[in-house]
Amino acid sequence: MNKKNIEKLIKELLTELGENPNREGLKKTPLRVAQMLTELTQGYTTTRKETINDAIFEEKVHNMIILKDIEMYSLCEHHLLPFFGKCHIGYIPKEHIIGVSKIARIVDRFAKRLQVQERLTQEIAHELHEALEPYGVGVIIEAQHLCMMMRGVEKQNSLMVTSAVLGSFREDLKSREEFLSMVNKAK
Ligand code: ZN
Fold first, then answer.
1. What confidence tier does 33 reach under pLDDT thresholds 50, 70, 90?
2. pLDDT band (50, 70, 90) for residue 187
3. Which residues lie below 8 Å from residue 16, measured CB to CB, with a gap of 6+?
């Protein structure tokens, strides 16, 4: 990604919007937007190795592990507006567990791209499934979309919920129910 090019394009965009990109308040806006977009799309360039950073450990536990309410911010690829909310993740380890902060980093890695919530949910589930080879994994995302709140139908309170289940979470109803009940507990 070339930040200088983005700066130039944002300046052009400001002009197209009828603004004066040289006025005091906007002078540094192209630079700031270029920096912001680089940060918000850094998921394209981070690798699995960097994200997980050797924090996978051998452990013979076979009970469900849940991490709830992970804050999630992403950009909708249809409007380039944020969608944001919470991500809940559960898995049943087979031979490996993962450092808890790394789960949040995996969420960020896929959220910091241009996304649709459905694909984001699946990508996180597949990443955990491939990296940990657990019995099963489940991911739920609850998010609000600014493209629905600020424009279009202007619905302020709708929450979109997506889920992806793999392995035993998909095949075994009991695992799936345990996951859902633990995510919903104490909400
Ligand atoms: Zn949108």
1. very high
2. low
3. none
129 is catalytic: no
Decide if 145 is catalytic. Answer: yes
Active-site residue, 117 included: yes
Q: Where are the domains of the chain?
A: 3-40, 49-184
Mean pLDDT of the chain: 95
The alpha carbon of 103 and the centre of ligand 1 are apart by a number of angstroms equal to 26
Question: In angstroms, how far is CA 20 from the centroid of its own chain?
Answer: 35
Task: Note the pLDDT tens digit of each residue in 84-96.
Answer: 999 999 999 999 9
87 tagged catalytic? no
CA angle (29, 149, 82) in 5-degree steps: 45
**Topology (CATH) of 49-184:** GTP Cyclohydrolase I, domain 2 (3.30.1130)
- Distance (angstroms) between ligand 1 centre and the Cα of 124 equals 20
